[in-house]
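Dear support,

I submitted the protein below through the web form. The confirmation email said the job was done, but the results page showed an empty box. After a refresh the structure appeared. I'm attaching both so you can tell me whether what I see now is the final result or a partial one.
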Amino acid sequence: RRAKLTISSPPRKQEQESSQDFYDDVENTLPSCYHKVSRVEAEVVLERNSELGNILLRPGSDNKNFSITVRQVVNGVVSVRHYRVRCSDNGYIIDVDQGILQSSLQGVIDHFVKYTNGILKPLDNSQDYEEHLTILKRDNESGEVIIKELPAANTGPSPPSKPGKKALRPSKTSPAPPDRPDDYPERSIPPIPPKVSKDIFGLSTDASQELHEKLMKRRKYIEASESKAKLNP
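What the results page shows now:
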């Protein structure tokens, strides 16, 4: 009987781990146009930021190599292309024609920019972050939704003062002036009822009293005359 010679291959798990470690190390030295997005997401990112750039670097579908996504619009015609960038012992190979070797990923990007005479512009990853606070607000007149930039708020700590210069002290706020009478709302004052005159038929009180006394004297005089007439028929 012949003895069977078996050659055991190294564990595949170790190969995957070493490749992943190499891939993670490479990510630490990535160019600024690297975006950790998928193939479809790369197309969307370039479409939404077409005024900022039209080429980016992204992870490959196998998580071992890299890919270049290019999106151009010429006379209304949209063109999207993807290029594979393979990792090798000598650097990185752009998988076109016979293969173009570059020593670094930044060299790969520079090759695309230089070869197209600057037509391709890398989409810087820093453009993903806004520099100001903005909100969506509906315009009252047109009804359209607009982007409104909020005023800057100085909430962070003040930067340290330069040597040789005194730090500015915060100005003391003066107390608020006292409220003026105009600051209070107007209060309705109830109307004052008119005084009721005790005049009799348009006469003043003194005249009425004098007339009353005369009438009483007149009445007494008449009663006295009538009594006297009765006594002397």
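Response: this is the final, complete result; the empty box was a page-load delay. Residues 1-10, 196-202 have pLDDT under 50 and may be disordered.
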